[in-house]
Each structure stands twice: as C-alpha cells, then as structure tokens.
Amino acid sequence: MELWTEHGPRVMAYALRHLDFDSAQDVVSETFLVAWRKLGSVPDDPLPWLLVVARNTISNLRRSGHRQARVAAELERFRQIAEPAVAADVLATERAAVLNQLAVLTPKEREALLLIAWDGLTPEQAARVAGCSLPAFHVRLFRARRRLRASGEADAAPHVDAAQRPLPSAGGTA
C-alpha cells in the first residue's frame, strides 16, 4: 500500500506523458501488479524500477497496437478482394427497411429469424445455437414472422420471409 501511495502519482505522470488517460491507467495498474507479484525483488529505491516496468508495459502496449493495426489492414485487404456477399446488389434503402423490420422483434425472435435467414441453419441447428428446444425455437420463429406480418412492414419487403430465402446483408450494422 505504501508503494502505491508514495509512487502511484509519479508512475501515472510518466504514463500520461506517453499515452492517453485510459491507456495510462492500464499501464499504472499493470506496473503495480508486476510490483506486487515481485514484491521481494523490488529495490529499496523503487521509483526507477517502477518506471522501467511502466516503460516496458508501454512498449508492449504499442507493439500490440501495431499488430492489431496490421491485422486490421490485412482483413480490409481480404474484404476488398473477396467475392461480394450474396446480397451485395441489394440497395441500401432496402437494407434499411429490413433493419427497421428487425427492430420490431424481440431479441429472441430476431435471433431465431436471423439464424434461419442469414446463417442458413436448419431449425434443428438453430435451436442448438439458440440454446432452446426445437419446439421452443419453432414458437420463436412463428412469433417473429407473425410480428413482422402484423407490423405491416412485411409487405414492403417480402424477402423477410425467412423460410423462403435469406435476408440481405446489412453491411455489418445488424
């Protein structure tokens, strides 16, 4: 406790010179976690040692960030060269209409409909994914379809009928 009280603000100031506030808090927490784990090897003058630990933690955080950025860039490259999705030709307004229709459903009804329509699962497979019995899944799917018909919006976009064909991709915003 004394180590934290005496040196915590100094380690935080060091971290803030290198990172944003949230990341600096993470670095300080990690620094004192290392100090607690190695309490027997913390020197009598702990501040320089704590700052070295903080510096190493910052370096690890930056390396991790660079790796994440490289992975994101690689995924974007794959996205650009991959085949378009099945529903890539669906207009954005149609996608918005589908998303509005899905918004009237409860989360369980929406999950049931999407497992069948977007993921292409059989009701048996979808029930396993949803963690419910097959009869319970059929009830969820029935209620989802009934709610869409009752909302009057199902007529505006007949492709929502999950039993017939899949819904268009919402571009990752669903």
From TrEMBL:
Keyword match Endoplasmic reticulum: no
Ranges where the RNA polymerase sigma factor 70 region 4 type domain occurs: 96-148
Pfam families with a match to the protein in the record: Sigma70_r2, Sigma70_r4_2
Assigned keywords, A-Z: DNA-binding, Sigma factor, Transcription, Transcription regulation
Domain spans labelled RNA polymerase sigma-70 region: 3-66
Region (Disordered): 153-174
PANTHER family linked: RNA POLYMERASE ECF-TYPE SIGMA FACTO (PTHR43133), RNA POLYMERASE SIGMA FACTOR HI_1459-RELATED (PTHR43133:SF8)
Protein family: Belongs to the sigma-70 factor family. ECF subfamily.
Protein name (database record): RNA polymerase sigma factor
Taxon lineage: Bacteria, Bacillati, Actinomycetota, Actinomycetes, Micromonosporales
